[in-house]
Design goal:
This protein is mainly β. The chain is about 10% helix and about 35% strand. It has 2 domains: about 1-30; about 35-180, Sandwich (Immunoglobulin-like), CATH 2.60.40.1240.
Length: about 180
């Protein structure tokens, strides 16, 4: 009987722990494991352009700027997007992990932070290198994400850098706030 009571008590404790962390409580309790813990200077996922975010494996990311793009290759038919601001988000990645880092694990979503809206991805012949290839341990590189945002949404943006997750590891998505500059 004692074994049965211990088993019921352990099961009840486990069920209550899961129920307390279901994300629906007003305390917003979360379970964090070393595989999902990420760091910034203040532990935040909301940063400004120029601040750095570090994932648990040592890969660091920052958005240095979002700059208007005007270097169109007119010989290939490129031209400004009517009614929109064409720009490149410059992303700095430092691989302080022990293994090479596949840059295709990263993706970028940019939202307008003035009147809403979401930027559309694009590409330009003369644009900076995109998020492709691998980064060796100890190496830092700046890559670009080419985008266009309708002018009615303004120039203030929030850039979310997403990292591919797996069943074993889930990564947080840091957000970087700033403005598109000329």
């Amino acid at each position: 009987m004692r074994t049965r009571t211990v088993a019921v008590t352990a099961t009840l404790a486990a069920v209550l722990s899961v129920a307390a962390c279901d994300g629906n409580s007003s305390s917003d309790a979360t379970i964090t494991t070393p595989a999902t813990t990420s760091t910034t200077a203040d532990g935040s996922l909301h940063l400004r352009f120029g601040q750095t975010y570090t994932w648990p494996d040592g890969v660091k990311v920052s958005v240095s700027e979002a700059k208007v793009f005007t270097d169109y290759d007119t010989s290939s038919g490129e031209k400004p997007t009517p009614g929109s601001t064409d720009y490149q988000v410059m992303i700095r990645i430092t691989n302080d992990s022990r293994t090479s880092f596949d840059l295709s694990e990263l993706s970028v979503i940019t939202d307008g932070a003035t009147n809403g809206g979401q930027a559309a991805a694009t590409a330009w012949v003369n644009g900076a290198p995109g998020l492709e290839g691998r980064l060796a341990p100890g190496v830092t590189a700046t890559k670009a994400d080419a985008e266009t945002l309708e002018k009615r949404f303004g120039r203030k943006v929030v850039v979310t850098v997403q990292r591919s997750s797996s069943p074993d590891v889930t990564y947080d998505f840091p957000e970087f706030s700033g403005s598109i500059t000329d």
